Every structure is written in C-alpha cells, then in structure tokens.
Amino acid sequence: MRTDPLWRAVRLLDVDPKRVLGAVLAGAGGLGSAIALAAISAWLIARAAQMPPVPALSIAAVAVRLFGISRGVLRYVERLVSHDVALRGMANLRVRLYERLASGSPAGMLALRRGDLLARVGADVDAVGDVVVRGLLPMAVAGVVGLGSAIAMGVFLPTAGVALAACLLLAGVVAPWWAYRTARATERESAAARSDLAATTQTLLDGAGELTVAGRVAPALDELRAADARLARAVDRGAGPAAVAAALGPLATGIAMLAALVLGIPAVTAGGLDPVELAVVVLTPLAVFEATSVLPGAAVSLLRSREAARRVVDLLDSSVQAPAATPAAPASGDATADVPAGVAVLRAEDLACGWPDGPVLVRGLDLELVPGRSTAIVGPSGLGKTTLLLTLAGLLEARAGHVLVDGRPVHVLDRAAAASRVALTTEDAHVFDTTVLENLRVARGDVTPDEATAVLRAVGLDGWLDGLPDGLDTVLGSDAARVSGGERRRLLVARTLLAAAPVLLLDEPTEHVDAGGRALLAGLLDGTLAPGRAVVVVTHRLGGLDAADEVILLDATGTVRARGHHHALLHGEHAEPAYAAAWRAEQQAEQTEGE
Amino acid sequence: MRPLDPRLLRRAQSARRYVLLTAGLGGLTAAVVVAQAVLLARALSPVVLRTADWPDVAPTVGWLAVVVVARAALVLAQERFAHRSATRAVAELREQVVAHAVALGPRWLAANPGVTTLATRGLDALEPYFVRYLPQLLLAVTVTPATLAVVLTQDLIAAVTIAVTLPLIPVFMVLIGRMTQGYADARLTAMTRLGHQVLDLLAGLPTLRALGRERGPERRVAELGDAHRKATMGTLRVAFLSGMTLELLTTLSVALVAVGVGFRLVFGDLDLVTGLTVLVLAPEVYLPLRQVGAHFHASADGVAAAERAFEVLEAAAPERGNVPAPDLTGTTVRLRGVTVAAPDRAHLAPADLDLDLAPGEVVALAGPNGAGKSTAVAVLLGLLSPDRGEVTLQGDGSARASVPVSEVDPSGWWSQISWVPQRPVIEPGTVRDAVGRGAAVDDAQLTQAAALTGLDAVVAALPDGWRTRVGQGGVGLSLGQRQRLALTRALLEPAPLVVLDEPTAHLDADGEQVVLDTVARLRDEGRTVLLVAHRASLLRLADRTVVVHSAPVEVR
User: Fold this and answer.
1) Is residue B402 assigned to a domain?
2) What residues contact residue B234 under an 8 Å CB cut-off, 6+ apart?
3) Weakest-pLDDT range from A31-45, A389-403, B302-316, B340-354
4) What domains are there in chain A, each with its CATH number?
5) What is the ipTM of this complex?
6) Are B213 and A433 within 8 A, CB to CB?
7) Residue in A16, A82, A200, A205 to test binding to B, most B beta-carbons within 10 Å
C-alpha cells in the first residue's frame, strides 16, 4: 500500500486529520439521521398499532421530524467540509509540486516540458483531490454507519445484527471490489480500441481535404466504425460483470430484510424479541444500504484517479534533488559593469552535450564568450543546438568537457548565481498570463516602465505596444493568445535583453518574425541591442549573420564543420562550400518571396 | 438543454432502443417495488399484532424472496444494457459528427479546432448521462407515479401529503437554481482564472529557472491556491443549497407521512398493513427524483457535448454539384477574380486571382507567406467556395460550354486529380498500401517511381521494407518522408491534373532535386501540373508563374 501511487499522492495532499474527522462525523451523522428516521418511523407505526395513549408516541413523533431536518443539514455540512479538505489538499500538492520542480535537477524538469505532463498536471492534481471527496470519505462514512447500524440491530437481536453486517460486507466491500476489478479489465481491453479511435478521428479531421479529394473518406469512416465496434465489444464483455456488481447492492438489501424476517419472527414467538422491535429490525436495513450504494462508483473513481496519481508521483520522482550547489556571491544590480571588456565570462572546452539518457548531439566544441562579442551557431535543424544552449546555461550537465563561468564549472553553481551570469531564452520559453510589464520583469524584478518601453521599441514592438488597449498593463492571456508568433519572439528577445547577465543565449530569436527579422538578428549580433554583452544566437537562417563576430557551422554529426566570420566562410581562403550553398539557396528563396 | 433531447433520439438509433428498454424495465421496477412493500407489510403486520406465527407468514416471506431476486435481476438487466447502449449511441454520434465535419471542409475545421476533442473525449462524457441519469429520469416517470397511485388506494391523506410536497421539489430546485446562477457564474469566472494562474506558473517554471527566477513564486502558488479554495467554497456553499433543499423536502415529507400514519393508527382510522405499506412506499416515491438530482451534475458534461455535436450536425454542408465532370485532358481550369476573406476578416487572401490551367501546362503559384496560395488551391479543388469570383471548367472547342466547378459532380472531378498537400496524411497500413491507397500497384512502376522520388531509400531503411506498417500503431514518418511518399503516389496515379503544394518545404537540397525530377517526369507524361512554390529552381521549371496577392479588406 505504501508504494501505491494513489496512496502516496493522497499523503502529499497533507490533509488536516481534524477536518477529515469533522467531515466523516457530519457524513455519518447525516446518514445516521436517515437510518434513525427509518427505525423510529417503524417503531412509531408498530407501536401505534397497539393503540397506546397518544403521549407515549409524542417523543417519537418529534424525533422523526428532528431527524428529517438533521439529515439534510448534516449532509450539507459534510459536503462543504469534505470539499474544503480536498481543496486545501490540492493547494498543498500544487505548492509541493512547484517547490520540488523548482529545486530539483533542471534536466528532469526540462524533460517534462517536452511531454505534456505539465499541461496535464492541473487536471491530475484535481483528480487526486477528488479521491478524498468521492472515494475515501464515502468509504469512511459507510464504515462508521455500517458498523453502528449492525451493532444497533445486534442489541435488539444479535443474529440479525450479524446478518446485517454480512450483507453490508457484500454490498460495501465485495460489490465495490468486483466493480473495481471489472472496470480495470475493461479499461485495459478497451485502451487499444480507444487509441485507434482517437488516431482515426485525428487522421480524418486533419486530412479532411486530402482524403475527400482522394476519395478516401468512406474507407476511413469504415475504419472508425471498426474501431468503435472493437470498443463496443470490449465494453460489452465488461458490462456483464459490472452489472453483477451493481445488482449486488439491491440484492444485499433484500437479503438483509429477509434475514431479519426469518430470524425475527421465530424470536418474537419465542419471546426473545418484542413485536414492535421486530418492525424496527426488519425495516431499518432498507435505509442502511444507502451508505454502501455509492461505493462501487467510488471504487471505480479510485481507478481513474490512480492513473492521475501515478503521473503526479512520477513528476515528483523524476525531479530528483539537484546536487548541492556552491553558493556564489549574488550578482550586484548591474552585473555587466563588473566585467572588464575582453575577459571571457563563459568558456567551453572540448564540450560534448546531449540529454542524460540520449545520444551525444554536439561534440568537441570550444567556445569563449567575451562581453561585446557575438557568436552565431548554425546547422541543420534537429541537431541539438537547443541542447547546446541548455548545457552552456548550466541547465544540463556536459556529457564531456567543461563549461566554466568565471572560471568555475557552471553546473555546480547555485542556479541563481549561474543565471546572474548567463541568461537563456529557449524557443519554447513561456509567456505568462499576466501583463506585458510583469512578463518583462520575469527577467529582472526591478524593470521600470520606461525601461520596458525602451526595450520593446528597440526590438521593433513599438507599433504593437501602441495598439495594446492598456499599454504595458495589458494582460497577455493564456500562453500569449493575444500575441502572434513573430510578436512573441520579439517579446522574448526583449525579456532576455532586460536580464542583468553579461552573457545572453538566444534560441532561434527570429523564427516566425517575418519582415524585419533580419534587422532584429543583426541588431542582436552587432551590439546595438545588447552593447557590452556576449550574445550567442542559435539559428538556421543565415540572413543577417554578417553582423556576428563569429559564425560556427555545425554539421549533421554535431561537430564543428567551419567557424569564422560570415564573409570568410563565404568568400575567404577557407570558404566552406556547404555554407555558401545554404546561403545561395536562402537568398533565392527570399528573392522569390519578395517578387 | 432539455432532460431528454428529442434530437438525441433522432440521431442515435441505439439511444431510441435503450430508452424504450429502460422505460419497460422502469415499469417492471415499479411493479416490483409495490409488490415488495405490500408483501413486507403483510408478512410483518400479523406478527407485530401477535395474530400469526412463522408458519402463517412463511409463504408471504417466500414470495418476498422472489421479489427481492426480481428486483436485483432488473438492476442487472438495466446495467447490462446501459453500458452497451451508451457505447453504441456515442459511436453513432461520433461517426455522424466526424463524417459531417469532414463534409464541412478544411476551412470549417480550421475555424472549429475543438471538434477533434468533441469527437473523441467530449462525446465519451455522454456515458454517465446514458448509464446513470437517463434511467433515473425514466424511473421518475414510471416508479414515482405508480407508487404514488398505490399509496392513494391505501391512504388518501398520506397520498395528499406526498402529492403536495412532490411538485415542490422541482419548483424549489428551479427557484434556487435561478437564484444562485448569477452568483455562481461570477464566482466560476474568478475560480477558473485563479486555477489557470497556478498552472501558468507551473508551465512557466522552465523559463523561470532559465532566468534564475524560480524562487518566490511558490508563495504565489500557495496564495493562489488559497484564493482558489475560498472562491470555490463560496460557490459551493450556494450550489449545495439546492441539494440540501431536496434532501430536506424529501426526508421531512417521509417523516410527516410516518407521523400522520402513526396517529391515525392510534385512533384506529387505519390498519397496520396499510400503515406499513405506506411507510415503505413513501421513500420509494421520492427516490428517483433524488437520484435525478444527484446525477444531474455528472451528466452535464455529456449533455453539453451532445449539444455541441448537434451544432456541428446542424451546420449546413456545402452542396455538391451533379453535372458529370468533363475529361480534364481536354479541359482548361479557369479562375476568375477569386477572392477569399481570411479567417481574421481583415485580409483578402487571395485577392482577385485570375488563373488559367490548360491541359499539359505546368503553372507555378508564387507569392509571399499568407498571400493565399493554399487557399487558392482549396478553391480550385472545390473544397472551399470563394467569397467572390468563380472557378469554371472550360471545354476545348467552342461547342462545349463552361461549367462552374461547384456544379460538377465532385467524385468524377476529384478522381482526375492527384493532390500532394503540405502535410500529406498517412493512413495506417503498410507503406505499399499507403502508396497505392486501395488501388493495385504494378511492381515495376512502383520501383521506378520510388527511385525517382527517393522513397526507395526511405523504404530500404525500414525494418520490413514495403511491408512495414506506418501511421497509427506503426513506424512514424517525418514530413519529408511523407512528402516523398505522396510524390510517389502522385507519379503512380494516372490523374491528368497534379497539384503540388510547396513540395520542397520539408526537403533538403537532395529532396529539392527529387521534386524537380518528379515535376519534369509529370510534364513528360503530358499531365497538367499546378505547383505552389517558393524556390527559384522550381519556378524556373514552370511554363508560367502566377503571383498570388493578398489585400486588406476595403473600407466601405
């Protein structure tokens, strides 16, 4: 049980036991009221049939009305307290996730970004919280109420109490367990059909035009029908056992009632049970089973939540604690000023990089980043240029060789210290759901509105800024829905420029930037945008690279094929034919587009 | 939406059968519920009054056992068929939605990206609606009136008590629902926003770390979580009121019935059998209504998904023509003034495009990104109707009049076209199936075509060669590989008109040569080729280049 992901995730919710107890008590009180209502009604009517004086019934009559009210009220309280417990737990879990991911090894966290785990984590945390409300609390309530009812019946007639307990076990333990098993088997069997279904739907809708013209819609729809039929068969096979689980509840209710009659009537004859009490013993079980009726559904919901819990726990596990970092002196306000020109801030020696579990993508790279000088790294796409930047920034450990920042290995530096020297903006950098200004302050907390306006103007976003309804205070919306691809890139460039670090690493800063992308790249490389800083740009476009102090051309194996100034690579003594060919192709394409 | 949308029954045959079956089972359930109450009262009453012993009531208890088994069997049958019918009804709806969405065309799909989610996960949410909500709804119209009618025959006063409180339940639910709706909506917006901000921070964590700014926001995560909880609890306090009202009304009514019956028993106005029957039946009258309330929220997602599915199904698909398509080897395709408003409505792309595509010609479409080249292709193919202008098929010789593409029978027209879009679709199957697309492929021709397009090298690297499974459940192909595959197909298909949309977009220098060779071969075969192209090498290959322009929407 300790290793079960669901259990681990639930423990991480860190729920307050007092509140849980409150919820269970309220829930048991509510259900208990309903049972008491049934028991006292039965007593009232049976006793009334003996035509006693009216005052003998008055207490029962009041109690019936009282329980009629307390049932609704206590149920209301239970629902509020249990949801409060779950919501507090979910908030705790989110904070824990954040803390763990923020302090864990960067590589693990970056790997997650590549999947959709982070995108799903919101729903997953909700599903784990749901376990408390839909799964664990109803079980606890049913346990308390079931035990209490069985004991109460046992006081009147011990054998009836035992029979009720047995029936409750059938409805409250066997039926949910059976439902869980069946649902798990069905889920397993239908998984393949479901993924075929999703894939076929996707193919049909993505390729609607092509399939229509090619006359292939009908066969694809046949395939969809076939996948749906497979799903129906899998569900059908599970439907029988699932129905058995559902029918066990009413069956157990009926058996408990019959058992009470069979055991109770002879007991009345034998004088062991008062006739009025017989009515109570027979009619109460009809109300008790309301507690167990939700449990099969609760068990199935546990199954669904377990998947979510597994993802959450994996997320936490994958982000193992980072090795102890060397605290470095925090950077002062303007870090660039500390560095004398001409001294390298970052030095890479015979560097090889790649993901910890993947192949080596870039190898044998020597690099010296000096403030005031710019470097452009070009090469075929998918080569690992982004991985190289992550390694230079200290977010990935070098596979071989060293990355030294101010003479110390970058990956042992404290993250804040490393980031104060080397600022990185990846291609998929996040635009936060907040104002333009706050998005820029992600790079440096003390950015003033004037600074922000200036930098936005510098990267060519002045027109965009003027068009925003609230200027710098405009909220950008969910992952920058209000921003086009090109505007997003420019915004990311602006944010990087605001970072205090003397070394700026930019990944494809001008991708999707249509007109003016070349000027932006040139501005980054020739020092107009980031004077006195070392700028590294990774790109696959060559236009504008004549502004770079050095161009490094990587080949498909990740080794340096050639390096030097743009003109030298193009026309010099050691001109690189591959570079020249790529350059010509790009020039031609641009001419065509310009026509 | 209405609790049971007639459109659902009209669209999904399985749903119709299921409703009939469930209504039938509901009727039987009503009979069993009544029988159980009556038998229980008859078995219990004489013993309580000490007028009978076990041997006297044993047969009644025996019948009661039969009823108990019958009730469980009814639940079994209901559940057994509920899951099956739900899956089938969802499948029927899914197929209709997908087929109709495809017929609505790529432009509509691009404007409605949610339809994929709707067709997969969205419609699956109908399952709780079918399995839980609908049966209780039908029990509410079978068991509730049947049990109430039986109570009426037993005891008028109890029946009146129930009959008066029963309508209060829906009335109160609606009233409270109305009262809380505005409040809940406002809270919901705040709640969604807070929840989203937390996720936003988590999603942006890599960025924060890259800039060394990851410390600090954990406090914000905690604050947001707290604010989210408070906002949610505010909504729930009000939302759960309707549930509480329902519980209060039903339990209090049952309590009132019990007390009323008790006092009339004391005064001898009622006998114990009747009293017990009414006592057992009273909660059963309310039970289906309570269950409808309990499952209402769980079914809401499914109901909303069904609603969206009907919206898709009710969108008007473009009408298809029925004039037999002319033979394209002797027909010029003519575009005149073709203009399409871009999805942002601010641009026309293309704007006033004129194009003649005569048999055997190789024509290139050029123009900057966003000028509407691919849109022009969609219009030419008849997948999209232009906002202005027309596409006609002009027969050779003066005798044959021109036919607008929109009036031509599309299957005859499309069967003469081979189209390689920017991102070709690979249907699941072997590579060979994917090339042939259901048609038989001649080995010699396949080898020749694959050598030309470079597909042979791709296939050589695959584990099972031509028999390797690709697409879903098989090997994934890169866009460049998919393009080579689609080019091979275009070579093999005998279509007189070939449309290539940016064939070199995902190919390197070698790949470019492949496209040049392919186009040259197509030209030699006398086929008409329309090329959407950027690169000069491709443009040089064309007989003519037509430049596509976009234009801002003129202000009126």
Assistant:
1) yes
2) B187
3) B340-354
4) 5-185+249-318 (1.20.1560.10), 335-430+501-594 (3.40.50.300)
5) 0.82
6) no
7) A205
